[in-house]
Amino acid sequence: MANGIEASAVEPSGIESESTRERILDVAEALFAERGLAGTAVRDIAREAGLTAPSLYNHFDGKHALYEAVLVRGVEPLFKIIGPGGSAEEAVAATPANRVQQTERILDSIMDHFSGHPNIAKLIQHESLTGGENLSHIVHGWLGPIVSTGVSSMKNNGQTVWNEDEQPMAVAAWIHVILGHFAMAPLLRELFKIDPLAPEQIERQKKFLRRFAQIMIAGPE
Q1: Where are the domains of the chain?
Q2: Pick from 77, 40, 47: which is nearest to 62 by CA?
Q3: What is the CA radius of gyration of the chain?
Q4: What pTM does this model have?
C-alpha cells in the first residue's frame, strides 16, 4: 500500500463478497464525491448498495475505513504511473526517441484509469472547494508524492522549456487539464453539447493530451 496507508476492512466469506465490496466502493465513491465524507451517512451508502448498515460493516469497519478504501482504489494506481519509481521516471530516463511514446502511454493510462473512476476527480474537487477535513490527507498522503515526482521529472528532462519557477505551475496545469475533464464533465457537457465521459470523447481527449504534452515539454513547433 502506498505510503503505508491501509484500508481497514473485514473480509466476509462467500463467493460474492468481492463483488459486493466493489459495489459498496462504487456507491461510496459517488456519494463521497457529491457530499464529502462528513455529509455522507453509512446508512445512505448501504441503502444505495442494496444492503443494510450492519451488512456493510461486514466488509468495512466504518465510514472512515470506507473512505480510505475509496482513495486506495482510486488514487493508488496513479503511483504506478506517476509516483516515485513509476512510469514517469522511466520516461525521463528513456532515450529522446522513446520518451514521447512512453509519455503517450502514461497519459493514456491516466485517462483510462479516471474514465473507470470519474468520481475520484469529483471527490478531490469537492474536498478542494469545501476545504474539507480530508483535504490535507489527500494532498500529503496521496497527491503530494505524485506531484513531487512530476516536478522532479520535469527538472531532469532536458527537453523542458519551463524554468525552475514555472515547473510547479506546469505540473499544476496538467492537474487542471486531466482532473477537470472528469470533475467538470457536467459543465463541459452543457457547454459543448458532448458527453466528456463517452468512449469517443475519452479518445479525443487522449489525442489532445498527446499534442498538449509535446507543447508542454518542448514548446510549440
Answers
A1: 10-218
A2: 40
A3: 19
A4: 0.81
Angle, helix 199-218 to helix 96-116, in steps of 10 degrees: 140
CATH number of this structure's domain 10-218:
1.10.357.10
C-alpha cell at 10: 473485514
Model confidence over 197-219: pLDDT tens digits? 999 999 999 999 988 887 776 55
Average pLDDT over residues 159-165: 80
Buried b (16+ CB within 10 A) or exposed e, 112-121: ebbbebbbbb
C-alpha cell at 141: 498522503
**Rounded to whole angstroms, how far apart are CA atoms 221 and 218?**
8
pLDDT at 117: 94
Asked if the model's pLDDT at residue 149 lies above 60, the reply is yes
